[in-house]
């Protein structure tokens, strides 16, 4: 299954007067880059939560945020004045060390971990299980979105791959015509110079020219790359890195094909191949 690295998921779960809200955002990245934001009282769960995400997602830059919101009407908020004063004092000391330091707003003080606390305190074990439950649900939603976008990417890649294979087939079919045109051009040049050339020597020159223009190996390798890419796109595993490497091989053979071309139509086909390779490469950057 080809999965995209772009996605978003939000899942909320109510627990004893509190609402656990998970938000997961994902964009493309070479590796798995995970940033986890947790309330102060739940930071001890970070290793377990991080492991749950790492087991489910192979690549991408993931921003995972958990918010705990009060839902009950009788919920009271405890304000830790001592912690707030200590924080303000520390900010003042740092401000004296800076030139034109930015002003810290009261809301930023209140958002500091531990300054405001809810009076609702669910059982720790029950809360842990609920946090993991909500995270797993958010991960499932994120993976579903990434899979849906990945299916679109796979179809687009297959369409471009079909176009690429068609161009390679055109070049292969034209090979005899190209050699015949080169033979005729050589004979015409000899005629213009009014030279008498032994037929056997002419055939030798044509053979040497055909050897310099031979692209059968490049076309065979390109056919192999096309078959390999079709197989990779059907795998039920992360395939982004394999496809990225394969694009380098595609590009190498297309460059060689272009450099050996002495025919306008073959050159145009090689250029179209390079355009398709670049389009596929850009799409593959977002494949997990």
Automatic annotation (TrEMBL):
Endoribonuclease YicC-like C-terminal domain ranges (all copies) = 171-288
| Molecular function terms, GO-annotated | hydrolase activity; RNA endonuclease activity
Q: Endoribonuclease YicC-like N-terminal domain location, by residue?
A: 3-154
Ordered alphabetically, the record's keywords are: Endonuclease, Hydrolase, Nuclease
UniProt keyword annotation of Kinase present: no
InterPro entries xrefs: YicC-like_C (IPR013551), YicC-like_N (IPR013527), YicC/YloC-like (IPR005229)
Keyword Hydrolase attributed: yes
Pfam families named among the record's database cross-references: YicC-like_C, YicC-like_N
Required co-factors: a divalent metal cation
Record-stated family: Belongs to the YicC/YloC family.
Give the protein's recorded name: Stress-induced protein
Q: State the species of origin.
A: Thioalkalivibrio paradoxus ARh 1
């Amino acid at each position: 299954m080809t999965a995209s690295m772009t996605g978003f998921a939000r899942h909320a779960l109510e627990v004893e007067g509190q609402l656990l809200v998970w938000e997961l955002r994902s964009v493309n990245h070479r590796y798995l880059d995970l940033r986890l934001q947790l309330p102060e009282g739940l930071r001890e769960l970070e290793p377990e939560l991080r492991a749950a995400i790492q087991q489910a997602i192979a690549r991408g830059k993931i921003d995972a945020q958990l918010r705990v919101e009060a839902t009950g009407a009788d919920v009271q908020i405890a304000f830790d004045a001592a912690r707030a004063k200590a924080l303000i004092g520390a900010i003042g000391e740092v401000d004296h060390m800076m030139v034109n330091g930015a002003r810290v707003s009261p809301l930023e003080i209140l958002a500091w971990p531990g300054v405001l606390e809810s009076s609702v305190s669910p059982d720790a074990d029950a809360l842990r299980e609920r946090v993991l439950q909500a995270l797993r649900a958010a991960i499932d939603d994120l993976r579903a979105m990434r899979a849906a976008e990945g299916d679109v990417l796979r179809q687009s890649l297959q369409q471009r791959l079909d176009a690429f294979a068609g161009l390679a087939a055109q070049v292969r079919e034209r090979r005899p015509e190209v050699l015949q045109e080169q033979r005729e051009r050589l004979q015409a040049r000899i005629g213009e110079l009014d030279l008498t050339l032994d037929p056997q020597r002419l055939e030798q020159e044509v053979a040497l020219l055909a050897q310099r223009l031979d692209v059968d190996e490049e076309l065979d390798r390109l056919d192999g790359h096309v078959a390999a890419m079709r197989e990779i796109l059907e795998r039920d595993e992360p395939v982004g890195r394999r496809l990225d490497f394969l694009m380098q091989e595609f590009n190498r053979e297309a460059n060689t094909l272009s450099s050996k071309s002495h025919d306008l139509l073959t050159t145009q086909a090689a250029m179209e191949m390079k355009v398709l390779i670049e389009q596929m490469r850009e799409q593959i950057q977002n494949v997990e």
